[in-house]
Amino acid sequence: MTADADADVDVDVDFGADGLVPAVAQDADSGEVLMLAYVSPTALERTRETGRAHYYSRSRDELWEKGVTSGHVQRVEEVRVDCDADALLYLVDQEGGACHTGHRSCFHRTVEGETVGERVFDPDDVYDDG
Amino acid sequence: MTADADADVDVDVDFGADGLVPAVAQDADSGEVLMLAYVSPTALERTRETGRAHYYSRSRDELWEKGVTSGHVQRVEEVRVDCDADALLYLVDQEGGACHTGHRSCFHRTVEGETVGERVFDPDDVYDDG
């Protein structure tokens, strides 16, 4: 018996020199692009195991589950990979807002500085500075 | 007379150590995420000047106008920037397909290897290898 060459097999993601790939989170229903963050092999593994979006924080240098502090978790419906296998797309069901500023999307400004995105929560109510 | 503090001013994009930021191209009508590529200060400037998407190729180490070879240009309706100003979102009107494989989107596969995206052209008809 030979292996089935047509069977779907996991794509070999190219994590590159720094061990990270950029991942775009998109609202699975509305199509809104919510954020861009970075993903390590472990972050991808945890995302697939748990169905909740995990990333790797470059500034804090640690694995990070989206929404652990804010409650604004992302349930991941599907993970896609691009043609070069060096970028990911998370199709998510976003609880609350993706952005720490209180906006639904981190991409809530034009490059000209105009705010175009919806604000859905007050960060003071969500992030405890005390 | 004082400057108007409320006036929209261009966001100061953080191009980071390597002088590049990731940019997501999204179909302005359908909301489909088409591709992720990198943008240099010059690529952003050209994009805003011409209204056509420019990127910076890390592999070829050069400025790159999307669609120059294939004809599959992206007319940019809006450029957005994320909360940390280190990622961009191009809202585009995509001619043909964004992906060199002939698919509408570079994100046409799940990480499990299943093809889920639409193929809209035959690369052999578009890219001249001769």
TrEMBL record, chains A, B:
Its EC number is 3.5.4.19. Belongs to the PRA-CH family. This is Phosphoribosyl-AMP cyclohydrolase. Residues 35-108 form the Phosphoribosyl-AMP cyclohydrolase domain. GO terms for biological process: L-histidine biosynthetic process. It comes from the Archaea. SUPFAM superfamilies: HisI-like. It is an enzyme of class 3 (hydrolase). Its cofactor is Zn(2+); Mg(2+). GO terms for cellular component: cytoplasm. Keywords: Amino-acid biosynthesis, Cytoplasm, Histidine biosynthesis, Hydrolase, Magnesium, Metal-binding, Zinc. InterPro entries: PRA-CH, PRib_AMP_CycHydrolase_dom, PRib_AMP_CycHydrolase_sf. The keyword ATP-binding does not apply. Catalyzes the hydrolysis of the adenine ring of phosphoribosyl-AMP. Pfam families: PRA-CH. Mg(2+) binds at residues 82, 84, 86. Pathway: Amino-acid biosynthesis; L-histidine biosynthesis; L-histidine from 5-phospho-alpha-D-ribose 1-diphosphate: step 3/9. Zn(2+) binds at residues 83, 99, 106. Binds 1 zinc ion per subunit. Homodimer. It is found in: Cytoplasm. It catalyses: 1-(5-phospho-beta-D-ribosyl)-5'-AMP + H2O = 1-(5-phospho-beta-D-ribosyl)-5-[(5-phospho-beta-D-ribosylamino)methylideneamino]imidazole-4-carboxamide.
